[in-house]
């Protein structure tokens, strides 16, 4: 039987600099926002933008500082990805490795050389690098000096950074993305965009002005990428997941549409090139004034993305009934009413493979541009057996169901160019900072306190994913 997945489909995995690399001040790297996010109850407050210090505190554990030390283990890790048959690895460049404070005249050569070495290692195995330019990390110096993306100055600094990496890696990287999960800015302002909120701020004014700056910066990066690397593809990236209406009550249906539009807003601008009417009405109703410079609207219109990258972990559900809303959870940051038809992960994330098909169809119908699933996976507590093996059948079942949904999506006529599952090797969780919330096919011996040997070992899912890739998604037994 012939696979429904297209020839050349980019099977692989996805990691982020701040969750994998460690070596947080090595070789001239500057402090980045995630380096200020501790484990424990304080983490969420910092991610929200309630932060008092721009220095790591004594005696506090910051998981990004060491992470899984991909910085020194990249050859070993990439060899394991190659053994699985990866066609692509999505990863990010840490802005502060290239410009430690964001304002240097010249880039940090040691930082540039590190990514050269990583890309060379990937290309040695015919693994396509898929590179996110900004994945939840802003140089802390820019947060202190400018208030991060609150300020227009960030646009030119980001443009300089992206032009630098496009020039440097133009012969090595053909797939790019601008901002990871750009809509996260509205939900976790400091994690998403380095925004610190202070007393007296009009929160929505601050966040939507910051969003405008990021959208303009993204368009400038698209322009630069097309000029510097004409055969490259550059996309946007959305934290996606269809929002279901809890009932057929039209009020609930409208509420679910509004919740989806809150996220679509960003991609509407990046893909269609203009602010949608519903956003303009929202700004008017909320008395928000988005300050734009001459030429911004033309820039947005003329430099739209080539493809839509998105993460999908779960669907969401909403209601207008106060009693039902009172029971909602904050699984995966996005508040959601419990869906009675679905099971959830150990962290309360709804498991909904059909939701992936619904979300992908929704995005393709809306934009008519190629889609790239750049994050998806199951975070779970993996307990090694006495011989060290990890029998993660629960992960295999999750993936199988989502791959079957992807196959249906392709048959629906959706143009899907690739799938990079989240955390093919165990990495630090972005939301909780934990190591015990594991996604990988490769187990890393480290715990929540950073203790362990960092030894890498294959889980049962390693061989299963290898077989799935080798058959181009046909053999999922």
UniProtKB/TrEMBL annotation:
Instruction: Give the protein's recorded name.
Output: 6-phospho-beta-glucosidase
Pfam families in the record: Glyco_hydro_1 (PF00232)
The primary gene name is bglH
Q: Which PANTHER family match?
A: 6-PHOSPHO-BETA-GLUCOSIDASE, GLYCOSYL HYDROLASE
Which residues participate directly in catalysis? 375
What family does the database annotate? Belongs to the glycosyl hydrolase 1 family.
Keyword Hydrolase part of the UniProt annotation: yes
Write out the entry's keywords from A to Z.
Glycosidase, Hydrolase
UniProt-listed Gene3D superfamilies: Glycosidases (3.20.20.80)
Task: Say yes or no: keyword Hydrolase present.
Answer: yes
